[in-house]
Structures are given as structure tokens and as C-alpha cells.
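Sample pair:
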Amino acid sequence: MTLYSQITPAHCEIAKWAFTTRRVNRNDVRGVCTELSQAQAGDLILCEIAEIGHHKKIQLAERRVSQSYPGDFVVLCLGDRYAPDQFLATAVIDDDLIDLVAGGGVAGRVDAAHVFMEEPTRLKPLGLLTGAGGQALNIADYALPTLPANENVTVIGVFGASMNSGKTTAASSLGHGLMRAGYSVAGVKATGTGAFGDFNSFEDGGAPALDFTDAGMATTFRMPLDRIEAGFDTLVATAAARGAEVVVVEIADGVFQQETQAILKSSRIRDRLDGILFAAPDALSALGGVLVLEQQNLRPFAISGMVSCSPLATAEATEVAHLPILSREELWSPDVIQHYVAPLMRRAPEDVAA
């Protein structure tokens, strides 16, 4: 690493700004504070890449990936992370080096990792970015205006059994099918870790996207439920204000993740859903997910995800879960949308053919 006599905002001008910082007005940066002990989740932090580990690229605010090199300057958000297949991490700076815990631009301290994971990419924290008043800049400062819940738009939730169960493909495919069926649709990622994969997937399918970073959170892990609910309300209402008739909302991770459990047990989010699509990697997970949802008096209208990629797994899941198993191609179909999703709509859109 290079030794610097003084870190200034000029270093931010040559830094790579991560996806989590995409809403930040970079002209607001007036200083860099090297007192790091009081840093909070969501604070903007200037780092130097010290050692390349698992995350070899940074997802940029411009929504492309950038190869990382030792010595690169990056602007990230301090944040927690919950990822059973990757890292458990805490939003804290308690050492000379910290970890890149998510490629979308989240830094913190890795507390545990999947056994097959490489060591995390290591970062030298250079300072917190500060504004004109000397205060630390936080992505919450750049959140969308808070809006009350919209009760008119239809909201379909997409939950999954675990990471990598196929939630993102299911959600974006559902959004694409709704669009092809003539609905005005938007995609929302309501919980998770800041990254552009889910965001881009919705937009690739034709649905304009919003996520929790738009509501001022780099990640939702360890966030109070009321803050997540308020973010959900704002994101759904914003999508509706922009013309959406139906909003597809993806909830991150599996049904046993703590925030997801809280949402399913008792929340404004759970109460607002007009339907649920469940993503599962296999038949056993499909059955288990249905049973978990039924314990909360919820039942999905269909199952999708990785299980739908295998005819044998699909047959098994259909037999034990007693629900339709819909592949991504089936979710694209206007006929499938009209059969399974149209009955869930809060009101019939005017521009959908009878």
C-alpha cells in the first residue's frame, strides 16, 4: 500500500464508486474524516484495495463491473451482510484493514464464511466522507422521499427457500410475463445486500426497478423491521406513482433469515401482499417452504426457481407440494399470467385486453 501524507476529497475524484453509492451527489463531499471508530452502517467510506481475495471486481454506480487492482481507491458503504453461501459480516471498523463483504460495495468485518469461500478482499479504510457541516455522509441522506403505503397497486411477493434458489430469475420472469400480458409492472428488491444483479435482472425483463438502496439502506440485515417496512411502503408507492399497476417484490435469502422470518410472521409487508410466488432449489425445499408459509397462514399460488429446471424434480415437487411448478419460460407466458396472477389483481387495469 501507498503511504499518504493527507487524504483529501480529491482522492474521491479518482476512486471507483460502488453501486451502493449510486444515489449520492458526489459534489456534496467536502472532507475525509480519519476518525473511524464511530462509523455507522450506511456511512460512505473511502478505501484503498490492499489485497485481492474473493471479490475481484467492484460493481460500479454506473451498473457495470470493474476489475479491481491493489492500490485502487474505492468508495463503498459500511454495512452488515448475511449470506449463508458467502459471508456473515458486521458493519464495524475495528482494525487497520477491513473486508469487502459484497461486490456491490459493502465493507465491514467478516465474522464467518462458507468453507469453500476464498479469503475476502482486504481494504485499507482511509476515511469517512463528510459534507459541508463536517457530518459523515450516509446513503440514508439520499433516499427517495418517504411515501405512505399505496393501497391500490397489486403487490406480488417472491420468497425463496435459500440463497441461489432461483428467486431473482423467478421475480424477473414474473415481471416480464406481466409486461407481455399488458400490465404496467415494476420490480422492487425490498431486502438484501446492495448489488445490481437483481436490479438489472428486473430491467432486462422490461420492468423498471427500485431497491432498498433507493430507500437509503446499503443492506437490510440487522435493520429494524419498521425501517424495512417504511422502505417497502416508499418503494411500492414510488413505483405506483411512476405508473405501475402491479409491483413484483423480491425478498432476499431464505425463509429462515431473521428479517424474512419477521416479515412473514407479522409485518405490513406480509399484510400488503396480494399473492406469493415461492422459489425452491429442489422438491424437498418446495415442500418445506410451503409448510413454513402455511404455518403463517400463507400459501403461494405457484412454485418456481431451480426446481423447475429439472423435469424429475418438477414431478416430485408437484406430487408433494400440490402446487403448480412454473418454469421461467412459463412465467413469461401471458396465458399463464392470466390464469395464475390475474385473479390476484386488486383492480382490472384499463389497458389489458379482456
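The first strand starts at residue 16 and ends at 17.
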